[in-house]
Amino acid sequence: MREEALLDALHPQMVKWRRYLHRHPELSYHEENTSRFVADKLRELGLEVFTRFGGGHGVLGILKGGKPGKTVALRADMDALPIQDEKSCEYSSEVPGAMHACGHDGHTSTLLGVAAYFCKRQHEVEGEIRFIFQPAEEVCPGGAQGMIEAGVLDGVDVIYGVHLWTPLAAGKAASAPGPLMAAADEFFIDILGKGGHGGMPHVTVDSVLAGAALVMQMQSIVSRTVDPLRPAVVTIGTIQGGNAQNVIAESCRITGTVRTFDEETRELIRGRIEEMTHWVAKTYGAEAKINYLMGYPPLVNDEGETERFFHEAPSIFGADNVIRCEKIMPAEDFSYYLQKIPGCFIFVGAGNESIQAIYPHHHPRFDFDESAMLSAARLLVMMTQSYQGWE
Hints:
The chain is of the alpha/beta class. It contains eleven helices and 16 strands. The protein has helices at 2-23, 32-45, 104-120, 144-149, 207-218, 220-224, 263-283, 303-312, 314-317, 334-340, 371-388, and strands at 48-53, 58-64, 67-77, 126-134, 158-169, 173-175, 178-181, 183-192, 196-197, 232-241, 247-248, 251-260, 287-293, 299-301, 322-324, 343-351.
């Protein structure tokens, strides 16, 4: 097919772009050079380009087709993670303490390839295509809200996004209608007691004891408060208190994360954590302060657009390789786009044991099968053309 040959020809360039970005990662809210790189490539293609979108380093490229029709938005994220790259390869990160450990370099390069493809067929485009290159997906409050507030979705009919996903083998793709990825909230609890000598606990208020009791109590929230048919996770990530073995600690800090798929459960857990924090601290004679941050909402795919994925994807991956996946607990700020307009978020397999693309996302030796970028590009092209009604 004509589109396959054109994308095949663009794939080596996608690989070059990806490896350049992998060598030069930039952390969330600091994607200045990445943004400039993307904007320059889009201008070379002849697109209308807007930069510093959303008050940050977002980039928007607009392609107006040769025929009237609907407006499709395609989104890629650009930020890296504060992780030291431990791979030994020609494109390892050259920035100490930073690396693309989640595949955003691949997302950006894939979308640049898709932009190049549609520019070569601009006279056939039925409507408008917007290429959204978003900063700061990895760190709340994220970059999506700023992009939306700046108007990237104004007049847009539908939006699609892909995530190169190493838990899934290259050559496969997966999605599901409705809730797919969890909301991700965070809490920071400070328990304030009365410090003193470890041998004289009766004249102190032990913040570590109160903190330990609170950690144990919070383990009952999911098992005894939440409907067992509604997935949820409460994880205590850190508990820190005291500086010496013979001193009762004056204060103790507890931090953690909450993952849910619906707003009712989300609010229920927040309420229980806040109540428990107050009453457990009081039981031990301590005081407590809690800072509860509501992070990304659940990512909820549109039923109709997910059905489009299941209809179109088998021609790329084969029917047996298109999977209806289970909900997963990681979060994604693509969820904000889906709160505004219909769309679908899709996992494209990028794992490959034969090339050591086996490490989980956010691992210092993370890498992916670069053939997945071609698969993802084909999928985004096909979803766009299907929605716009190309002949």
